[in-house]
Amino acid sequence: MVQAKTWILTKHFEGFPKDSNFELKVEELPKPKDGEVLLEAVFLSIDPYMRNVQGYCKLLVIQSNNPAFPVGSHVVGRCGWRTHTVCDGTDLIPIMPEWPQDISLSLALGTIGMPGLTALYGIEEVLGLKKGETLLVNAAAGAVGSVVGQIAKIKGCKVVGSAGSDAKVAFLKELGFDEAFNYKTVGSLEEALKKASPEGYDCFFENVGGPFSSVALQQMKNFGRIAVCGSISVYNDTTPQTGPYPHLTMIFKQLKMEGFMQSRWEHKHPESLKRLMGWLKEGKLHSREHITKGFENMPAAFMGLLQGDNIGKAVVAV
């Protein structure tokens, strides 16, 4: 029998999460039946949307009665905040067989995984970003935003990034962003956006929502496009934010705004992951990880992410 450690919610969050919302439990797992596998978590992804204690894991198959997943296989799955799990293999995604030995498998949860795919599809499928255009991305030093900016540079665009600390701004400059600013210290967000791109913005990759979005929409060029990926500024609100409302701006500037999730283009994942890996190997795409060691530190890592502690992809190493 294998013992699995698992984090559960004792109470749903009211506002910002607290330590008392989480409880660590231990459970005995049965042996895998025919068609099942026993998985051990190696890395667990930390993402803003994980308020239900669900999320992606990089897993190792340690027992198998399923020929599709032999012992020693590396896979990605959504198994929750657990050290071990038994499943029938449904929805498990094998790591690409040509994964280079010198690249950490933790990147399967980041740049060469869901965040990287989100960045790629937001740019290509939603925004249709073209060479020479100007892109604005907020939460730009996070797992998705940092990849967004780099892909836009690969495509020959001007990139402006907003982040929440001077260290994050320095990171964006290292990545090749044309302009970057700390939204917490600028006197006026409107003036910072105008200074970074006086001619306005063709495209806006939206990760934050709230007041930032209201100001940014005013800086869009006519016929601008907005890809809505996240809204981290409202995730911990106890009462919904209200207004200002953007409808007149969107009408007169004839803007296009579209929400999306990367799963819409699941049929493209294998090809897209190869493209991301190719850019990484060529040195065109760089990845930084914020790694927390120890499964017992999952809640602290999650709360740290919501406070903006991380630069790049937040991951827990079990």
TrEMBL record:
Signal peptide: none
Stored SMART domains: PKS_ER
An MF annotation (GO) of this entry: 2-alkenal reductase [NAD(P)H] activity
Domain Enoyl reductase (ER), residue spans: 15-316
EC class of the enzyme, as a word: oxidoreductase
Catalytic reaction list: 20-hydroxy-leukotriene B4 + NADP(+) = 12-oxo-20-hydroxy-leukotriene B4 + NADPH + H(+); dodecanal + NADP(+) = (2E)-dodecenal + NADPH + H(+); 4-hydroxynonanal + NADP(+) = (E)-4-hydroxynon-2-enal + NADPH + H(+); 13,14-dihydro-15-oxo-prostaglandin F1alpha + NADP(+) = 15-oxoprostaglandin F1alpha + NADPH + H(+)
Gene3D superfamilies reported in the protein's UniProt record: Medium-chain alcohol dehydrogenases, catalytic domain (3.90.180.10), NAD(P)-binding Rossmann-like Domain (3.40.50.720)
GO CC, one annotated term: cytoplasm
Chief location of this protein within or outside the cell: cytoplasm
Subcellular location as annotated: Cytoplasm
EC number assigned by the record: 1.3.1.48, 1.3.1.74
GO biological process: prostaglandin metabolic process
Regions that span the bilayer: none
Xref: Pfam families: ADH_N_2, ADH_zinc_N
Keyword Metal-binding (UniProt): no
Superkingdom classification of source: Eukaryota
Keywords associated with the record: Acetylation, Cytoplasm, Fatty acid metabolism, Hydroxylation, Lipid metabolism, NADP, Oxidoreductase, Phosphoprotein, Prostaglandin metabolism
Similarity comment: family membership: Belongs to the NADP-dependent oxidoreductase L4BD family.
PANTHER family in alphabetical order: PROSTAGLANDIN REDUCTASE, PROSTAGLANDIN REDUCTASE 1
Subunit structure: Monomer or homodimer.
Protein name per its UniProtKB record: Prostaglandin reductase 1
Source organism of this protein record: Seriola lalandi dorsalis
